[in-house]
Amino acid sequence: MSGQTLNKLSKAMLFQMCETLNIQKYKYRNKTEIIQLIMQGSPTNLIAAPTNLTDVPNNFTFIEVCAGGGGLSAGLIKSGFTPLLLNDNNKDCCKTLQKNHPEANVVCGSMADIDFSPYVDKVDLLTGGVPCQSFSQAGARRGLDDPRGDLMMKFIEILNLVRPKVFMIENVKGLLTHDGGNTIKTIIDTMNQSGEYNIQYMCLDASKFGVPQKRERVFIVGTKKSLTTDFQYPVEQPCKKVLKDVLTDVPASPCAKYSNDKIELYKLIPQGGCWVNLPEDLQRQYLGNSFYSGGGKRGILHRLSMDKPALTLLCTPSQKQTERCHPLEERPLTVREYARIQTFDDNYEFVGSMNSQYKQIGNAVPVTLAHRMGECIKKVLM
How confident is the model over 315-331, as pLDDT tens digits? Predict the structure, then answer.
């Protein structure tokens, strides 16, 4: 395989080749350097790509809307999909997508303004993490009455136009119970008006699929009835990854900060503990009136444990209700620690301010879970 041909591969595919050829220390190099390592490493074995890689371009294609910082797309690319179009309306997210997937067509703006007609009947997978704030268990949960709920309906319009072989939507667990289950029923009934798809949904906990984080998300998958293989969700892994598996040798990166008072409180909290481990007078002082409101509130002053998966990472590591203190140090997780827990490769770069990077990572689909879903979808398309 020539250097020119290798240059057409995505970084994820080059990484797979490095692993197959047992090439070391490739993750922190740029694309040109990685290609040189491959060419030098085993020139006689590069007449064709390794058998576990797909041809160039990949056999399967996808479009992703509401792509965010790219966790879902990164996982799909690892599983052998080629992005035809990646879309988000956040400028930092789009710059992140362009930085990491230079071969992809990244369109920044509302998906409602994109002309999808060139892709009709030409796409294997249409997917997206359609905004979920309107269905969140922590928010107002107005669902389809929220203006953001219109994006779900826009996705369905795109689905009916493009007619992909498979579609997939990722959303929060709260979608299942919103309006007593009527919201998800309405969404699926609307998707199914054409009668072309077999549609199913399941709530997956990322910690059961190789991700060191408890993160529950709903995946709605529709497959064309003309396909001969039924879609099956990934099988749970018997052994969970925990934080000590990933929080070692993490590259330096920006980190949010705690106040001195909060640092002193965290010194009293063991791994896996939270505000309940404080003396009662400090509990009352820190929680204020909420001390008397009852409920769990175990996310407050929570210190993670090296021996367990993390709690769900959110858009900021240091809000009072959703704190995620480092297991061993009195500080929030750094940006790269966030990315490690979300199973991004260390070479995956995020663009924007520190707060923007936290948000991009906290909103992402864990890359490993996306990879597992991609492998399952491929079996339907083969």
Answer: 998 877 778 899 999 99
By annotation, the residues acting in catalysis are: 132
pLDDT tens digits, 343-363: 999 999 999 999 999 999 999
Query: Which residue is it, tokens 């992402």?
Result: 364
User: What is the value of pTM for the model shown?
Assistant: 0.81
* Maximum C-alpha span of the chain: 71
Please choose, from the candidates 125, 129, 149, the residue with its C-alpha nearest in 3D space to the C-alpha of residue 218.
Answer: 129
